[in-house]
């Protein structure tokens, strides 16, 4: 079954999250001052992969391996940008 799941993120430059194989990240937002990523997943998929995410603040250098932009979220006064680091 395909569903959208929410994954809370830590406010750190890099982190890995376990997602079902084939998951598609669809959104990055702040919810009640918590940064979160939402992904479309197949709940019947048993294989798990580690996806590496990179959170960068506005005006900060983007690492060269952070190549896939996901989105932008605001927790005033800060603005954060999420990238996926391909494995």
Task: Explain this structure.
With 87 residues, this protein is mainly beta. It has one domain (2-85). Helix content is 0%, strand content 66%. It has no helices and 7 strands. It has strands spanning 2-8, 14-20, 24-31, 34-42, 48-57, 68-75, 78-85. It has a 4-stranded antiparallel beta sheet, with no helix packed on it. Strands 1-4-3 form a 3-stranded antiparallel beta sheet, with no helix packed on it. The radius of gyration is 13 Å and the shape is globular. The termini are far apart.
Concise summary:
This protein has 87 residues and is mainly β.
Number of domains: 1
**Strand elements, count:** 7
Q: Could you tell me how far the N terminus lies from the C terminus, measured between alpha carbons in angstroms?
A: 26 Å
What is the rounded Rg?
13 Å
Beta-strand level of the residues, as a percent range? over 45%
Tell me the strand order in the biggest sheet: 2-5-7-6
Any low-confidence stretches, pLDDT <50, length ≥5? none
